[in-house]
Amino acid sequence: MVIVTKSNYFNMEFTEIQLQEIKTRIDKIGVNLSRDDANWAWGVYTDIIQKAEKKPCMCGSSAHHWRRAVETIREFVKDVNV
User: Fold this and answer.
1) pTM to 2 decimals?
2) In the chain, domain spans
């Protein structure tokens, strides 16, 4: 089953299972991102914004990119009330 998510911010398609996985995983992400979490988060982030953005490096100077990705995912989850 595909859910079409339409809100003030997003117009994206995910299944219920995918939405639940996104919520579960993003809720576990704290201040420090592991490489696995970073790869996953960047993929979900680019799916949500529907743009192909180059993944930033994991250095401290790229923290604002990672924060933007994680906060976008959190806002998306909140917006669709998973």
Assistant:
1) 0.84
2) 2-80
